[in-house]
Amino acid sequence: MPFSSDEIPNPRQSVLRERRDAAVSGHLERTPAIYRGAIRIHPEADDWSRRRDDAPPSLFLTGPIGVGKTHTAWQASRQWLSTTVDRFGRVPSIETWRSTALFDALRPDNRDYDAKALTGTLQRADLLYVDDLAAARVSPTGWTQERLYEIFDERYINRRPVLITCDVLPGQISHIVGDRVSSRLGEMCRGGVLLLEGDDRRKGGVAA
Ligand SMILES: Nc1ncnc2c1ncn2[C@@H]1O[C@H](COP(=O)(O)OP(=O)(O)O)[C@@H](O)[C@H]1O
Ligand SMILES: [Mg+2]
Asked: What is the domain extent for residue 43?
């Protein structure tokens, strides 16, 4: 049967769809195994990930341990990626870091990373996702906090989004990331601080 004009595959749409599917598969491969399964995420996280017009650019997921912050963030970042490819026709860069690994990588004596080059990458990425921002028991040193300041200030002044999970609020992490980063995060995530409530799912709890 011949195609109606509505059904004729549009080459640009096909290319975009392929690009999006490849990007989402790559993201899933990088996702830790327990966070690959699709879950129903909080409507505000869903709005953020689908870049709805009134959603804030950055998202700060907070709440007690085990409530589902990290799983929500992985799924939200995957949806954000998919929406961005569809809307802007290009594959955005997403940097995902556990905070403790990030602080280590930014230390001046780290042999695996060039802290300056990494700082530049994290300043420019289309989305920076930092998991469990308050997890470090030993706060980063002044030098590492300066790199964090460079990263977050550059993102702040260019309105580049961040996705953060953390078991405390942005105003309660100054001792870890420094006052300047804490203050910028507060502004970047204004309207986008989302409290997930419920019991520890690792102990069989279900979030509200
Ligand atoms: N909505 C959900 N439905 C089913 N399982 C979930 C959901 N959210 C999280 N989980 C599971 O609960 C456990 C804890 O989630 P996680 O995101 O690691 O918590 P948090 O980051 O808040 O400490 C993980 O095994 C995760 O896969
Ligand atoms: Mg977590």
From this structure: 11-198
